[in-house]
Amino acid sequence: MKKILVTGAxxxxxxxxxxxxxxxxxxxxxPKGFLATAGEDAxxxxxxxxxxxxxLHTAAISDxxxxxxxxxxxxxxxVELPVWLARAAAETGAKLVAxxxxxxxxxxxxxxxxxxxxxxxxxxxxxxxxxEMEQRVQALCPGAVLMxxxxxxxxxxxxxxxxxxxxxxxxxxxxxxxxxxxxxxxxRGITYVRQAVALLEAALTLPGGVxxxxxxxxxxxxxxxxxxxxxxxxxxxxxxxxxxRNLAMDCSKLQAHGIVxxxxxxxxxxxxxxxxxx
Length: 278
Prior knowledge:
Largest sheet: 6 strands, parallel
Mean pLDDT: 96
Distance between the termini: 36 Å
CATH class of the domain at 3-153 and 189-216 and 249-262: Alpha Beta
Strand content: 15-25%
Strand order of the largest sheet: 2-1-3-4-5-9
Low-confidence stretches: none
Number of strands: 10
CATH topology of the domain at 3-153 and 189-216 and 249-262: Rossmann fold
Structural class: alpha/beta
Oligomer: single chain
Shape: globular
CATH architecture of the domain at 3-153 and 189-216 and 249-262: 3-Layer(aba) Sandwich
C-alpha cells in the first residue's frame, strides 16, 4: 500500500483527503501544529523518519487579505515550507504533489480561459508567493506536481472543517435577507472540493509540472451566482458591479491526462446529490 504524507491534514482539503482516502493508502501526518514552528532541519528529519512514497502538500495560508497583512508569515507558510518539502522529497525520492492557486493569475489582462503557459505577474501577496513557490519547487524537484486550484466549496457535514464559500455565502444571504455583490467582469472557476479530492488520486501519477486543477467556468460571477441560487432553490438579491478580474483557467492540459472535472455549474448538482438534497 502506497504511503502518503499529508500536510494540512486538519485543514479544508487535507481533512477530506484523510476521510475520503482512508483504507486506500497508508496515510500519515506531521504532529498537530508541527509545521507552524518547525525549521527546515526538523521538517527534513520528519520526512526522513516517515519515508513516504508521496508527500501531498495541502497546508497553506490561503486568505489573501491575511497574507497581505502578514507577509512574513505568509512567505514562510506558502514559499519556504514547500521549498523545504521539495528538498526532502528530492533527497528521499518521494513524489511531491502540492497545491498552488488560481491567484497566480490575479492581474492578468488576457481574457478567456487561461493556460498554464502565459506570463504572470500576480497582483496580490498570496499569488506572488504561490508563483515563487512553483518556480523554486520545480527547480529543486522537477518531478513535483503543482496544482493551481480554484476557489473550492463543500457543505457542512462529516464533522469536517468548513469555510466561507459561494453556496454557503448565498444561503446565508438568503436566510438573512441580505444582498450580495458580484462583478459581471469577474471570471473564475468554482470547484466542489470532494470531487477535487477524488480526482487528486489520479494526479499522484502525473508527470512533473504545473497544472490548472478544478472546474472550468465560462460564465461571469454574477451569472454564476444566479445559477447557483437557482440550483439551491433560494432567492437572493444579487447586485451587479463591474470591476475586472480573470482567474478562469483552461484545464485542457489536465484533461489530456484523463482528469476531467464537472463544469462549475454541474459540480454544484453533484454536491447536492452527494448530500441527498436533489
